[in-house]
Write a structure and sequence with these properties.
Elements (H helix, E strand, L loop, with lengths): L7 E3 L30 E3 L3 E4 L6 E5 L2 E7 L4 E6 L2 H5 L1 E6 L2 E6 L14 E7 L4 E5 L3 E4 L3 E11 L3 E15 L4 E15 L4 E16 L4 E14 L4 E5 L4 E6 L4 E4 L3
């Protein structure tokens, strides 16, 4: 049974284990995706709730993990093992976009070490996700809406189920996106050895552009347009009604047989 209300965080102390329960928002996380044993419970030593205004997009940067879901209310929580690091994580809403980033001004990078930063976000209406600088975005439940724009760069990753009318994806700089779901229209631009793995993402209409040794895989049911260059690889599934393909520079465009 899918759980539609969020996460409860448990705080552990060396001497006495305490549990602090609080409701962050509706469906912040579908915990089966990342806490298989303890459903609805997230164990996190330094979680901090952030009060922000409403937003419809999320932009993250600087090597952090984002757990993203949808609900009737927005909610934001941040976690880092080092409290000094936690205090430097900024959560700001500008132009209807939630910006989450690490403020390193005046900081000795040696003090940062390998501290892992996590952001837990619930949003009502979603139309934009941007990630740069080795970020990892995880959709903890289906993400739904009308139009969605994804911009990923700098070795960032994403895994999510999408249910949208229209999705536009820009991936550059060795990014990797693993997508499932159903969309009416999908436009993908992949460059710089990026990968968009979407055989489990069904689209009726798709426009795919791959360059710079990138890889795109998608299932398309009606019309497909492909432009591939520079040693890129495009594979598709589906019984197409129309196909327009152009390839150059050693690129490959092939239908993947089941």
């Amino acid at each position: 049974m899918h759980c539609n209300f969020i996460s409860w965080f448990s705080l552990h102390n060396k001497a006495v284990m305490k549990k602090i329960w609080f409701l962050l928002g509706i469906s912040l996380v579908s915990l089966s995706a990342w806490a298989q044993q303890d459903k609805n419970i997230v164990y996190d030593a330094n979680v901090q709730v952030r009060n922000v205004g409403s937003f419809a997009g999320v932009e993250i940067s600087g090597a952090m993990d984002l757990y993203l879901s949808q609900g009737t209310e927005t909610a934001v929580a941040i976690s880092a093992a080092d409290l000094q690091i936690l205090d430097r994580i900024r959560t700001e809403v500008k132009d209807n976009i939630l910006h989450i980033y690490f403020d390193a001004k005046g900081m000795n990078w040696k003090n940062w070490g390998n501290t892992k930063i996590k952001a837990y976000v619930t949003v009502n209406k979603l139309n934009r996700i941007e990630a740069s600088g080795a970020c990892n975005v995880k959709g903890t439940g289906p993400l739904k809406g009308e139009d969605l724009y994804l911009e990923f760069s700098g070795a960032s990753d994403m895994g999510a189920e999408l249910q949208f009318q229209s999705v536009k994806i820009d991936a550059s700089g060795a990014c990797s996106l693993r997508l499932t779901g159903n969309v009416e229209r999908c436009q993908v631009s992949a460059s710089g050895a990026s990968s968009v793995k979407g055989f489990e993402l069904q689209a009726n209409y798709a426009k795919l552009e791959a360059s710079g040794a990138s890889d795109i895989r998608m299932t398309v049911n009606k019309e497909l347009s492909v432009k591939a260059s520079g040693g890129s690889n495009v594979k598709y599934k589906g019984n197409l009604q129309s196909r327009d393909v152009y390839s150059s520079g050693g690129a490959s465009v092939k239908k993947q047989e089941d």
